[in-house]
Amino acid sequence: MPFQTxxxxxxxxxxxxxxxxxxxxxxxxxVPCIRRGDELLFVRRDLDAWASHRLLNMSPDNMTTIHGxxxxxxxxxxxxxxxxxRLFRPEWINPKLLSKTKPSVLRDMVALAAQTTLLxxxxxxxxxxxxxEQQSSTAVGNGVAFLxxxxxxxxxxxxxxxxxxxxxxxxxxxxxxxxATDIFFLLCCQDNKLHLHALARLxxxxxxxxxxxxxxxxxxxxxxxxVLERTENTLLQSL
Length: 239
Hints:
By secondary structure, the protein is of the alpha/beta class. It folds into two domains: 5-56; 77-237, 3-Layer(aba) Sandwich (Mannitol-specific EII, Chain A), CATH 3.40.930. Helix content is 50%, strand content 18%.
């Protein structure tokens, strides 16, 4: 039900914030909503797209707070909330992407996604990534980007997954710090809630740990996968 509407209380809970804080964002026209008299309603998929954009621009301290709140909502998260083994496989990681431009890295990452055999329509994913990048870059600085579509189609793949590519040479991907990017994650989730949780997890791992440096020194896809698992475990133990 992608067009389901949420009340301000439901929307605030989904965003892990206070309803008053969300109301202030609405007052400043910072979040999409529908006004019906005194009532505020939020279209779920538009709210999730806004939340995804907000995550990429969030400060490390705020990211830690949001990720911690999202993780603690999971039942027995110490055991069941490992997203890395759920979404990634070593064979879905390429440590030697030959991409030299932003358009070519999008094509190469979609080709890597196709190797999972979970993706139904490569061209739809590529078009969705291109449209999302036209809206604003998903490169966030420190040489990392989190590629994803703005809206998530549950029929695009047979299961949620993520792939990771490291380019041989950093490329300019539109990061706000003006630096080139060499670490590219691609998230393809059937469910918006899982997408936001995974995006928050990867952002928190990138901001608050040595993940990026360790990924750059790993020699093989197996080593990069081990870095992801080890970093996630360390992060969860700190919550």
